[in-house]
Amino acid sequence: MKTLIQILENSNSKLKNLEQNIRRLERLKEYSEELTRIKETIEGFKKTEYKVRESLKSRNLKKKQNDYDYYDPGKYDVAYFYVKSMNDEEIIPNLNFKPSLMTKCAKCKSETPVLMSYTQADDSPEGDSWQAVAFYICCRLKEIKTITSSNRFL
Ligand SMILES: [Zn+2]
Known about the structure:
This protein is an alpha+beta fold. Helices cover 39% and strands 33% of the residues.
């Protein structure tokens, strides 16, 4: 019986330890998913900027230069912009890729530019629907937070 009690005490403390480690791993997993989202967002932002610049360049040259000539942001990808302004119905992008509208991180209160994603959600004969999501990335806490979203039908 003594041995059995020892095993019980031992397993109890081991289990407690393991559970702590599992919780720690879960937090790390969440953090890694958040960082992945941030990384993909920044990569997407850089890609949009590149495509828009290339398409403007070719339009100015008035001849077909490359595949980005007819780039339609959000049509076949998720496009990202800084936000110029927003209200309950609309989120307006700043097309020059410079920070414009600022917000404060809800948690640490540091100032950060408002960003948006823009993508076609539905393409149908009755009309296309576009989704815009305004969000910010807190550089201090490495978090991405949605502010608001809007759907537009054309
Ligand atoms: Zn913050």
